[in-house]
Write a structure and sequence with these properties.
Layout: H1 8-13, E1 25-26, E2 33-34, E3 49-53, E4 56-60, E5 66-72, E6 74-75, E7 83-87, E8 90-94, E9 100-106, E10 116-121, E11 124-129, E12 142-143, E13 150-155, E14 158-163, E15 168-174, E16 176-181, E17 184-189, E18 192-196, E19 202-208, E20 210-211, E21 219-223, E22 226-230, E23 236-242, E24 244-245, E25 253-257, E26 260-264, E27 270-276, E28 278-283, E29 286-291, E30 294-299, E31 306-310, E32 312-313, E33 320-324, E34 329-333, E35 338-344, E36 346-347, E37 355-359, E38 362-366, E39 372-375
Antiparallel strand pairs: 1-2, 3-4, 4-5, 6-7, 7-8, 8-9, 10-11, 12-13, 13-14, 14-15, 16-17, 17-18, 18-19, 20-21, 21-22, 22-23, 24-25, 25-26, 26-27, 28-29, 29-30, 30-31, 32-33, 33-34, 34-35, 36-37, 37-38, 38-39
Keywords: Signal
Organism: Prosthecochloris ethylica
InterPro entries: WG_beta_rep (IPR032774)
């Protein structure tokens, strides 16, 4: 998805898309990073966190030290060693010293993934490498990221694929194409979905009303108004019987029948009964569930490890999950014990040892003990 302007806290928090060598900042020229502090030790780029201060974005280390001083109009977390930043309405990419690797020049960009990103050139898109060089000569109407060595691209109204040299592998012929996983790519022909291999051969004929990519060697498909799951041969391994369903995440899929959600394993066995009004995917071994507007967590066996007593919750990370009481956010551990008392107006899940929070009109980061390691202004 192309990066666009959003509100301050949301712009930082939403990127949990939230992902960030050496700490420092740049004078705006390639290789011109001037260290924010000579005492800062090298850190992994993906561990740097985005901050917003004095109407600009920058980055801090996991210890809360400013690594790249705030100077960008918008900045996103590091992925694949580079971070997209915007200055004067143009997007470019920086390294972990704050130096531009790719100068701001594009109207829209995507984060790098596996060495490639997409950028806008006029009303077209092209793929670039981390040194800024173009992948092949093609300009496409739209493209997805590379998966299993190919990317689905749209040209003249149809989707085909290119390889990492920019050469066309599968000629554009589909009404929609998505990603490859387990050797199969999801495509749409007319109003039906099927799957092709990387040579463009049909493996699963387009017969499904809706479908998803393969996750855990299973893909959900809709037929005659019910959801089931097929394997990579196209065999229906879990018969269509669900009113709604999501893909397998951590070997569990949430499924809905008669207005309630439960979870099945990859054999189709119901492992958590249909008992929730709302159920989310598993993450780190736990899933968010809700009944009558109250939220908690279940483990993969269906044990409610955090009781359904909170007005909102967010996923576990670092063994902690943000939970909202009537007015404030705190953090519980996997036993349901409140280990960071509710005092935050906003709170996000932990990422690389820090969590973004908001309190007393300021954005801040805390460590797993609840200690504030950085804030945009003093908090009394």
């Amino acid at each position: 998805m192309d990066i666009r302007n959003r509100n301050c806290f949301g712009r930082i928090a939403a990127v949990v898309m939230v992902l960030l060598m050496f700490a420092g900042c740049s004078d705006g020229s390639p290789g011109g990073g001037d260290s924010a502090s000579s005492s800062l030790r090298p850190v992994a780029a993906e561990s740097l966190q985005v901050i917003y201060q004095d109407d600009a974005f920058g980055y801090i280390t996991p210890e809360g030290d400013v690594a790249i001083r705030p100077k960008f109009d918008i900045a996103y977390i590091f992925r694949d060693g580079l971070a997209p930043v915007r200055v004067d309405e143009k997007w470019g990419y920086i390294d972990s010293t704050g130096s531009y690797v790719i100068e701001p020049q594009y109207s829209q960009v995507t984060p790098f993934k596996k060495g490639f990103a997409r950028v806008h050139v006029g009303d077209k898109q092209m793929y670039i490498r981390k040194d800024g060089s173009q992948v092949g000569e093609l300009l496409v109407d739209f493209g997805y990221h590379f998966s299993e060595g190919q990317a689905f691209v749209k040209m003249n109204g149809k989707y085909g694929t290119i390889d990492t040299t920019g050469s066309i592998v599968i000629e554009p012929q589909y009404d929609q194409g998505y990603f490859f996983s387990y050797g199969l790519g999801l495509v749409r022909v007319g109003d039906r979905y099927g799957y092709i291999n990387r040579e463009g051969e049909n493996v699963v004929e387009p017969v499904y009303t809706e479908a998803d990519n393969f996750w855990g060697s299973r893909a959900k498909v809709l037929i005659d108004g019910k959801w089931g799951f097929i394997d990579t041969t196209g065999t229906m391994v879990i018969e269509p019987r669900f009113d709604d369903a999501w893909s397998f995440i951590e070997k569990r899929a949430r499924v809905k029948r008669d207005g309630k959600w439960g979870y099945i394993d990859t054999t189709g066995t119901l492992v958590i009964a249909y008992r929730y009004d709302v159920a989310e995917n598993f993450s780190g071994g736990y899933a968010r569930v809700s009944n009558r507007g109250k939220w908690g967590f279940v483990d993969k066996d269906g044990q409610e490890v955090v009781p359904l007593v909170y007005t909102d919750v967010k996923p576990f990370s670092n063994g902690l999950a943000p939970v909202k009481t009537a007015l404030r956010w705190g953090y519980v551990d996997t036993t349901g014990t409140m280990v960071i008392e509710p005092r935050f107006v906003q709170a996000e899940s932990f990422h690389k040892g820090l969590a973004k929070v908001s309190l007393k009109g300021a954005q801040a980061y805390i460590d797993p003990s609840g200690r504030i390691v950085w804030s945009e202004k003093p908090i009394q």
